[in-house]
Amino acid sequence: MKKTIAVLPGDGVGKEVTKGAVEVLKAVANCFDHEFEFTYGLVGGEAIDKKGMPFPEATAEMCQQADAVLLGAVGGPKWDSNPPHLRPEKGLLAMRKALDVYANLRPVSFSPSLIDASPLKREYVEGVDFIIVRELLGGLYFGEPRGRNVEQGEETAVDTLVYKRSEIERIITTAFEIASKRKKKVTSVDKANVLESSRLWREVAEEVAKKYPDVTLDHMLVDSAAMQLIRNPKQFDVVVTENMFGDILSDEASVLTGSLGMLPSASLSMAGPSLYEPIHGSAPDIAGQNKANPIAAVLSAAMMLRHSFQMEEEARVIEKAVEQVLSAGYRTADLSVGGGHFISTAKMVEEIIDAIVDDSAISKIMTCYS
Ligand code: NAD
């Protein structure tokens, strides 16, 4: 199968981890006789430096022409004091809007060999396996009016939390579709005791639930959800929530697994190319040191194969290879509990590729003899 993948390495460790993910994708293409063509574009701080804007038109066009987009991360101290329209993160929001990626999926599950890297006790995290479905194009991050004013001599800032019924309906439907293929439980997170937008959210969730009689729907207030993620994370299957609540809760959930460097994400579009990226940022503190954990980016590539290209077997081969390498004891610095021996970004990628090649060689031999 032939596919074009737009690669946007971005800033900081984004460059290092996407390089690793591309190498893994090339290895998969080789083993499974696919043809992946990679096109490269600028986004974030580097795009500001070279093109004067965080999401240049050429990058937007390149993404639209691709079958899927692989992003590293954007940002860094160099651009922190830029005006709002020249911030790297502005490029991210513009890209999400341009690609119309409304549903951000963040799976949270554990490699059995990493349980001890979690800050929680083993009995709380063993068996945790849920997915956060975050609405990505509405709410506070996009609502108008927004901005700063001076009113009656005092400086004022405003952001607007607004949702249309149709926006809520499509994200809740996505959550139910996912839950119907998993443990059949949706937890919808809102702040319906205070916010009008959350009351509409809750009503729509109830309406959508009627179409999925075999899936249970629970509602949880966001403050309680923040606590329950730590107290009893095993209770969750699919958590669906609005943009800002999802942003915060998914970072909280990522800590359960021991490192931000482990968690992938997919941002799905209804029609065009979808976007895949690790959930971490550009990690300026370790950028350029060959120290970053590439696993979140590699697992994001696996999500791309599964969700955009329907290559389930290929996605599983990557996930299995990652598990194998971790259970063999290989760790990047972020995972080395107590400062034990660790390997570089490049070495981790090499180990994952070796495991993929070995696995597919074995499957080919098994197919010949079966
Ligand atoms: P961060 O995720 O970059 O880093 C937080 C901590 O996690 C750091 O200690 C970092 O070293 C560590 N870390 C992150 N990724 C890692 C990896 N792959 N391997 C090992 N350790 C890893 O968050 P931050 O420090 O708050 O933000 C840094 C910059 O990234 C900021 O400019 C921020 O705006 C940007 N950011 C971008 C995105 C994105 O592009 N999607 C997301 C979050 C933050």
Automatic annotation (TrEMBL):
Pathway: Amino-acid biosynthesis; L-leucine biosynthesis; L-leucine from 3-methyl-2-oxobutanoate: step 3/4
Pfam families assigned: Iso_dh
Isopropylmalate dehydrogenase-like domain residues: 4-352
Gene3D superfamilies recorded: Isopropylmalate Dehydrogenase
Segment forming the signal sequence: none
Subunit architecture: Homodimer.
Role this protein plays: Catalyzes the oxidation of 3-carboxy-2-hydroxy-4-methylpentanoate (3-isopropylmalate) to 3-carboxy-4-methyl-2-oxopentanoate. The product decarboxylates to 4-methyl-2 oxopentanoate.
Record-stated family: Belongs to the isocitrate and isopropylmalate dehydrogenases family. LeuB type 1 subfamily.
Protein name per its UniProtKB record: 3-isopropylmalate dehydrogenase
Provenance organism: Bacillus songklensis
Taxonomic path: Bacteria, Bacillati, Bacillota, Bacilli, Bacillales
GN (gene name): leuB
